[in-house]
């Protein structure tokens, strides 16, 4: 060990007077040597004027911020106030807080099912009645979060039509885009609940989705549509409307978030959980304050501002579908396996079933991603 320098150490005390014996001198020398060599002896009480030795420990380097995970999210159809929760979560920074960089796309349901299954889109919004046939056709997707807890497809009519319930549809003309999709499945389920089939009504197809205008003009007695769309528009226009929806014990799985099985099993699984949590947070905020959702929609789709009253009514009707008894008990977004089992059984038993092969609930859903 190198010897200490000959000049006095700055921490060394000045003697208070009187003679210093050899023992005191030796103890001072030992103390000086310990300080010079960086000894780690426990110090005694400090005295005014003592200066501790400067620390030689380097400051820790800041932890680098991880790159955000990019997610492509397909919302379906066109930008609309019904997607307000996604817009709010994006604008409020909830996705960013979850370490995500989200890009939205708008495509129709059938396209999204295929793209999500292929991995070209990470997360999509799709109807449960589209997921079941897709899985039966070996498209590897799973439904992971419920958006519409109440099935949004309905049959509606003018209140003046005399139609008060599903049984009153017997012998009536019903406008519908065609014998496919969620509207067709819902109509069959609605009729089956009162012992009727589509053979007991007159189906009038409107491939260009003109059934609302046909109903307004009296060309049909009732029409299929969505609870947060056509009936809302009719009521706002001053026409009292009756809505025929599936009862609670016959509900089909409504629109929700779907993800490809490869994504669920891969490195983006945690990012998907973060997306779901951020989206649920926005849904809860909008349910408490619909105006917040409207403003988020306007920020994303400025033309929404041209009809604030109507768009707010649509949003409120949409919010009403987000909760049912099951999600109230299990949390917003929870996936109900019993409803899925019932839907698979019903769809598989239809005369012209879209279910190509028998499927199980476990093949269609992964409810763990919706768990808080």
What this model shows, in words?
The protein is of the alpha/beta class and 372 residues long. It has 2 domains: 69-150 and 252-370, D-Maltodextrin-Binding Protein, domain 2 (3-Layer(aba) Sandwich); 153-245, 3-Layer(aba) Sandwich (D-Maltodextrin-Binding Protein, domain 2), CATH 3.40.190.10. Helices cover 38% and strands 13% of the residues. Strand 6, helix 6 (181-192) and strand 7 (202-205) form a beta-alpha-beta unit. The chain is globular, with a radius of gyration of 34 Å.
In short:
It is built from 15 helices and ten strands.
List the helices and strands and how they pair.
Elements: H1 22-36, E1 69-74, H2 84-91, H3 94-97, E2 100-105, H4 109-118, E3 123-126, H5 128-136, E4 141-146, E5 153-158, E6 173-176, H6 181-192, E7 202-205, H7 211-216, E8 222-226, H8 230-236, E9 241-244, E10 256-260, H9 261-265, H10 269-288, H11 290-300, H12 308-321, H13 325-330, H14 337-348, H15 361-364
Parallel strand pairs: 1-2, 1-3, 6-7, 6-8
Antiparallel strand pairs: 3-10, 4-10, 5-8, 5-9
* CATH fold group of the largest domain: D-Maltodextrin-Binding Protein, domain 2
Q: Give the percentage of residues in beta strands.
A: 5-15%
Strand element count = 10
- Strand/helix succession: HEHHEHEHEEEHEHEHEEHHHHHHH
Cα separation of the termini = 61 Å
The name of the CATH architecture of the largest domain is 3-Layer(aba) Sandwich
Rg calc: 34 Å
**Outline type:** globular
Into how many domains do the coordinates divide? 2
Determine and state the CATH class of the largest domain. Alpha Beta
Q: What is the structural class?
A: alpha/beta
Tally of individual helices: 15
Give a quick account of the main beta sheet: strands, pairing sense, barrel closure.
5 strands, mixed
| Low-pLDDT stretches | 1-56
The CATH superfamily of the largest domain turns out to be Periplasmic binding protein-like II
């Amino acid at each position: 060990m190198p010897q200490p320098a000959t000049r006095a150490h700055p921490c060394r005390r000045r003697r208070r007077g009187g003679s210093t014996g050899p023992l005191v001198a030796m103890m001072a020398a030992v103390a000086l040597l310990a300080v010079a060599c960086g000894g780690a002896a426990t110090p005694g009480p400090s005295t005014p004027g003592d200066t501790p030795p400067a620390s030689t420990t380097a400051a820790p380097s800041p932890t680098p911020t991880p790159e955000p995970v990019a997610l492509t999210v397909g919302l379906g159809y066109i930008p609309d106030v019904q997607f307000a929760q996604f817009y709010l979560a994006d604008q409020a920074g909830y996705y960013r807080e979850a370490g995500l960089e989200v890009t939205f796309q708008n495509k129709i349901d059938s396209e999204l099912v295929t793209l999500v299954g292929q991995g070209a889109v990470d997360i999509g919004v799709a109807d449960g009645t589209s997921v079941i046939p897709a899985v039966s056709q070996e498209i590897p997707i799973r439904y992971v979060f419920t958006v519409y807890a109440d099935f949004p497809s309905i049959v509606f009519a003018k209140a003046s039509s005399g139609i008060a319930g599903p049984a009153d549809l017997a012998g009536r003309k019903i406008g519908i885009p065609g014998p496919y999709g969620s509207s067709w499945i819902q109509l069959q389920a609605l009729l089956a609940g009162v012992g009727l089939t589509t053979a007991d009504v007159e189906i009038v197809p409107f491939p260009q989705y003109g059934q609302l205008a046909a109903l307004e003009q009296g060309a049909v007695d009732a029409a299929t549509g969505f609870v947060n769309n056509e009936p809302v528009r009719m009521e706002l226009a001053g026409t009292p409307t009756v809505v025929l929806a599936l009862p609670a014990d016959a509900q089909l799985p409504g629109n929700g978030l779907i993800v490809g099985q490869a994504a669920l099993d891969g490195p983006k699984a945690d990012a998907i959980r973060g997306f779901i949590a951020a989206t649920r947070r926005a849904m809860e905020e909008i349910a408490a304050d619909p105006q917040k959702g409207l403003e988020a929609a306007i920020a994303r789709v400025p033309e929404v501002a041209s009809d604030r009253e109507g768009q707010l009514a649509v949003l409120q009707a949409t919010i009403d579908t987000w909760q049912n008894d099951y999600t109230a008990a299990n949390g917003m977004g929870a996936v109900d396996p019993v409803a899925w089992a019932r839907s698979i059984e019903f769809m598989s038993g239809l005369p012209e079933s879209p279910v190509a092969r028998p499927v199980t609930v476990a093949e269609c859903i992964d409810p763990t991603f919706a768990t808080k």
